[in-house]
Write a structure and sequence with these properties.
single chain; alpha+beta; binds 2-acetamido-2-deoxy-beta-D-glucopyranose
Length: 254
């Protein structure tokens, strides 16, 4: 006769056997299908036909652009990841039948999101603004770090350190434009010192020549009159007289 306790034990034993069948029935390199344990396919391969009592699993290789990276009982391979330049990515390691593509950031990009050793999203390195210098250059995993220039220095944003403003005086020049945080001081020749006297001298010479010409013209006029009246010429007027010949001739003809 079977008593209640024995029935309970039996049910527990069957349940625990079932439990084992569901979760631990197949060996490590096997997979379970319809209550049967079948040998797994190697990485790079998929199941073509499940095993039967007589025949082992039939495996076939993954075809182009697909992969499986572990021993498996799968009917289909996975599609290889595409490294999208639009996401700032390029191929680091190409896809094989047994490993997915590994992507990395494009030049001047850094990875903002990663999955299993592959970058899945990258962004462009920040450009430092004018008045800032590059404190730390960007890498494949870190953005550029920028910092402000100190007073008396400048940077266009592409410098690793801010440059000191040029000291025009030390170069023997004058400062035309003061330096800013983004631009150097502008120096020019010390010309104003020599240029102004030059202009003054030129003006004096021009005025002197103009006055001399006027004087000669006036004297020609008076000489012509005197000549007409007296027909005599002072010795000192001879050289001026020569300049006046044309005019005198004209007057004599009248
Ligand atoms: C930084 O500057 C470069 C060169 O001028 C440009 O190609 C790039 O798009 C800029 N980056 C950003 C984030 O604006």
């Amino acid at each position: 006769m079977i008593c209640g306790a024995e029935i309970t034990f039996l049910i527990a034993a069957i349940l625990s056997l079932n439990f084992e069948l569901c979760f631990c029935s197949c060996a490590r390199a096997e997979y379970e299908i319809d209550g049967e344990c079948c040998p797994m396919c190697a990485p790079g391969n998929r199941v073509y036909r499940h095993c039967t009592a007589d025949i082992s699993t039939t495996c076939v290789s993954c075809h182009d652009s697909t992969f499986i990276d572990a021993p498996n009982g799968l009917r289909d391979c996975f599609s290889c990841t595409v490294c999208d330049p639009g996401q700032g990515l390029r191929v680091k390691t190409p896809c094989t039948r047994s490993s997915d593509t590994v992507c990395e950031p494009l030049d001047e990009h850094y990875c903002t999101d990663q999955h299993r050793g592959s970058c899945i999203l990258a962004e462009k390195h920040t450009n430092c603004s004018t008045g800032q210098y590059i404190k730390h250059k960007g890498t494949a995993f870190k953005d550029t770090e920028c910092a402000e220039c100190a007073d008396g220095t400048f940077s266009d944003g592409s410098f690793q350190t801010c440059q000191t403003h040029s000291k025009c005086e030390d170069l023997g020049l004058t400062e035309i434009k003061a330096g800013t945080l983004s631009s150097d001081a502008e120096c020019g020749n010390k010309s104003p010192a020599g240029l102004i006297p030059g202009i003054i001298v030129s003006i004096i010479i021009i005025v002197a020549v103009a006055m001399a010409v006027t004087v000669i013209m006036l004297r020609c006029g008076s000489l012509t009159c005197r000549k007409n009246k007296q027909k005599t010429t002072k010795k000192s007027d001879n050289h001026i007289y020569l300049l006046c010949i044309t005019r005198t001739h004209k007057d004599d003809l009248k």
